[in-house]
Amino acid sequence: MRGARPERALDAVVRGVLRPDRGARVCVACSGGPDSVALAVLLDRLAREDEYELVLAHVNHGVRASADQDECVVLSVGARLGRPVRIARPRIARDDEATLRRARYAALAGIAAETGAVVVVTAHTAEDQTETVLLALFRGTGLDGLAGIPPRRPLADGIDVVRPLLRVTHAELATELRRSALPYALDPTNADRRYRRNALRGALAMMREDFPHLDRAVARCAEIVRDELDETPRAAQRRALRERLRADGALHDVSFAQIEDALRS
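Above: the chain sequence. Below: its structure as tokens.
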């Protein structure tokens, strides 16, 4: 994010996906981790400018020793921002990834319904998108898996889950977090290789040394595949432009960024 005020570029990215009505209520899923705290800070700023209400939603699974500490971090962030915090403590029968994910989204939907929120916003980043796409690829996925995490999907009746940061990196969010000087917690289970994502992260960390734009490239690929599956106008415009360039013999070495710039002009 370049420029004298790089946070404004990040604001534009989030606004482009979120788009709540004035006066609406928005829940931000806040685990207490650095990405979710950065998102809460960003949305707090946007909510004040765009005049909508913000609620911090925290799900305490209670499956690790630091769970209550994470909850305290979120309460502190809410207090510093002057925003209400809602806590859910679902009963968890097992601590595998799928069970925790289902319980988390069910709890977030419940908080949204109780508070009258129309969307739940999560801090999934470009790195999360990379992990999701690669794990799907390793399972032998089709196009649906290559589309990765959707930027928006229905969560419950009248409530969507929105992920505006799928093309934003941890490093960009870290800048937002440092600027806020707010507390955050680190998840010790990120080193637990029972979870498939953690087994992948070490390999990806080494690959990023040689391929620094890896996450942006995967996020871009997932976006293209999703646009094609959804048959969006943008997908049709991309195809038409590429066909014109191909017919003129000018498609060789034309990048995705150049295609997108041409469509915006």
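The beta strands are 25-29, 53-59, 85-88, 119-121, 152-156, 159-162.
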